[in-house]
Inverse folding.
């Protein structure tokens, strides 16, 4: 090793020391141990694989589930002077060829790939030629059918070992996994128990509040004005992002909206304005936040409950990453429960409906039964739903299940800019310019403005080129198409549609099988998650932080003292110290015997009977005490 891990950290990130468990995780990887790292949101998971990959020769393969997250990570690495690229669904064969060649023959340090990409022949052949120093499995909870974002392709990641060899260590990282999911990840990736490094998910500086409000808009304005600092407001539809941001603007708050349907340059501008404090509040769907590390977010407000505690924990955890006091506020009203349950039912359409959507999809693309494997199609779900009389939300959920079952893959919508790469060398290019002087100015501009255009497909801005050459955008497009027809360049026009890929040949709908793990089992898991979120929102007796941590099987924590439940308890007649002392005495007595309430109160002699009864009543409401058939109180484990 020419550089130590601390040298790397200082050179590329400017930090003098690692945080929490980062150094332990990195050293485990450098000792060539397959490792599972569990860090809370904002705990610096990416550094845990980026640093060891930079220390050693070779390239790190990072498996990541989201295109937007991959693109963010690649851009962040490039800004630090580190060579990285990403391959994901929707790229054409030529783009993938170029990228993989660069990984084999270039000096790239990171290759980000979607899990589905690992199964393709083109990837497997090239991966065998790469000098891989580490495989990082990001969002590794996706490997488990018990995880909140189960993705079957993750379960085939372990097959990479057959291609790159068993000596290359695997590092799985996640911020959201309970004991069942942790065991599943470790089992599937053959990670030994001693190499599971878990940092507590507790966030002591984050105060969790559930506010029961019918007029959520009014309460939101009060919260933002009282906080008067940087924040995120999460809503569940794209339409509401704009509506709520306009509401805040009308009330004198600098706000903007963000969702996955916006053009990439528009998203980038909104995101940068917020990061650089030109915008105080960003109102967003859950498309916002992945890969963004803004440390001074003081408040994260959810206008509706997310469908899972994992999603809530991850989104709320974007507050207070600098360690200073921050708040995660969830606005709740009784009708939210009905909405959550309705969404759950919509998420799992009847199997006959899923088969209808699958059949319609083949007809939409005019794809014959028995053909189509590995074919890509730009996909407009609104147009598709309209032509076959499906509700868009129903079609979306049917396609999600078909994707999980492995029949198709539907990428998220991302904006792919116009891209160009020169296909000929300098000599041939010079000869072409001599014969076609009308194209010379465009060629020279492309060469001058785009370093690496002979090696990679480079994104170009047609408006900027047109302005420079005093031509229309249409004239530039026509010229680029001519250069492509003469095989001088590879030119890929812009697109912002999702891409649908057939993973296997289209089959007759009667042959379609939906495995239990991706339908019935997932429906059960999702219902458990939904029930927990409703309990989290409706409980008035259990500390919010304690309740949330219990979902992740962390039970050794005291009440936080800062959530709405703890604050309300402090408003009662008992001080927190008296309450805690009485509770400890009750627990000590009932751990050895069951007693009726009269005898229990009599045994606690240092406090007034009414004080003891208040604590007993609270513990009964909290379900930590209960009565047996003899009307005796006992502890509930």
């Amino acid at each position: 090793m020419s550089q130590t891990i601390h040298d790397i950290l200082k050179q590329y990130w400017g930090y003098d020391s690692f945080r929490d468990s980062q150094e332990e995780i990195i050293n485990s990887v450098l000792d060539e141990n397959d490792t599972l790292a569990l860090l809370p949101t904002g705990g610096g998971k990416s550094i845990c694989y980026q640093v060891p990959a930079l220390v050693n020769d070779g390239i790190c393969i990072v498996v990541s589930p989201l295109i937007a997250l991959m693109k963010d990570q690649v851009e962040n690495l490039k800004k630090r002077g580190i060579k990285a690229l990403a391959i994901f669904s929707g790229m054409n064969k030529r783009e993938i060829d170029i990228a993989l060649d660069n990984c084999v023959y270039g000096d790239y340090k990171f290759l980000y790939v979607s899990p589905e990409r690992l199964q393709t022949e083109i990837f497997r052949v090239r991966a065998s030629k790469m000098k891989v120093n580490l495989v990082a499995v990001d969002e590794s909870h996706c490997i488990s059918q018990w995880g909140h974002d189960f993705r079957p392709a993750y379960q085939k990641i372990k097959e990479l070992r057959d291609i790159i060899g068993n000596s290359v260590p695997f590092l799985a990282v996640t911020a959201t996994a309970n004991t069942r999911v942790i065991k599943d990840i470790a089992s599937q990736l053959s990670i030994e128990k001693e190499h599971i490094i878990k940092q507590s998910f507790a966030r002591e500086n984050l105060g969790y509040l559930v506010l029961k409000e019918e007029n959520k808009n009014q309460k939101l304005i009060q919260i933002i004005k009282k906080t008067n600092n940087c924040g995120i407001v999460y809503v569940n539809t794209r339409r509401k992002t704009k509506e709520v941001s306009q509401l805040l603007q009308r009330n004198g708050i600098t706000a903007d909206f963000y969702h996955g349907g916006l053009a990439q340059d528009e998203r980038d501008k909104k995101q940068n304005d917020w990061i650089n404090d030109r915008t105080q509040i960003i109102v967003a769907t859950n498309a916002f936040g992945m890969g963004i590390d803004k440390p001074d977010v003081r408040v994260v407000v959810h206008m509706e409950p997310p469908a899972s505690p994992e999603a809530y924990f991850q989104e709320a955890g974007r507050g207070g990453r600098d360690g200073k006091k921050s708040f995660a506020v969830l606005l709740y009203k009784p009708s939210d429960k009905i909405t959550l349950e309705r969404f759950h039912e919509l998420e799992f359409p009847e199997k006959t409906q899923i088969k209808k959507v699958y059949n319609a999809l083949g007809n939409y693309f005019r794809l014959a039964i028995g053909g189509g494997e590995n074919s890509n199609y730009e996909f407009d779900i609104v147009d598709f739903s309209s032509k076959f009389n499906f509700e868009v939300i129903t079609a979306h959920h049917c396609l999600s299940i078909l994707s999980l079952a492995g029949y198709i893959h539907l990428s998220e919508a991302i904006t792919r800019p116009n891209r160009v790469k020169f296909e000929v060398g300098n000599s041939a290019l010079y000869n072409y310019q001599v014969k076609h002087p009308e194209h010379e100015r465009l060629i020279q501009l492309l060469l001058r403005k785009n370093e690496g255009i002979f090696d990679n497909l480079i994104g170009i801005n047609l408006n900027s080129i047109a302005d420079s050459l005093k031509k229309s955008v249409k004239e530039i497009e026509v010229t680029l198409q001519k250069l492509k027809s003469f095989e001088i360049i590879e030119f890929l026009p812009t697109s912002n549609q999702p891409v649908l890929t057939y993973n296997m040949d289209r089959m007759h709908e009667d042959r379609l099988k939906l495995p239990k793990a991706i339908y019935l089992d997932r429906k059960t898991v999702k219902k458990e998650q939904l029930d927990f979120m409703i309990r989290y929102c409706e409980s008035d007796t259990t500390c919010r932080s304690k309740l949330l941590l219990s979902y992740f099987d962390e039970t050794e924590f005291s009440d936080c003292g800062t959530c709405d439940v703890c604050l309300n308890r402090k408003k009662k007649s008992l001080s927190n110290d008296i309450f805690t002392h009485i509770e400890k005495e009750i627990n000590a007595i009932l751990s050895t015997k069951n007693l009726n309430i009269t005898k229990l109160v009599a045994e606690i002699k240092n406090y007034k009977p009414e004080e003891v009864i208040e604590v007993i009543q609270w513990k009964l409401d909290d379900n930590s005490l209960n009565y047996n058939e003899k009307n005796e109180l006992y502890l509930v484990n």
Summary: The chain is about 45% helix and 15% strand. Residues 433 and 440 are 5 Å apart (CA to CA). Residues 349-414+497-518 form a domain with the Arc Repressor Mutant, subunit A fold (CATH 1.10.10.10). The chain has a mean pLDDT of 89.
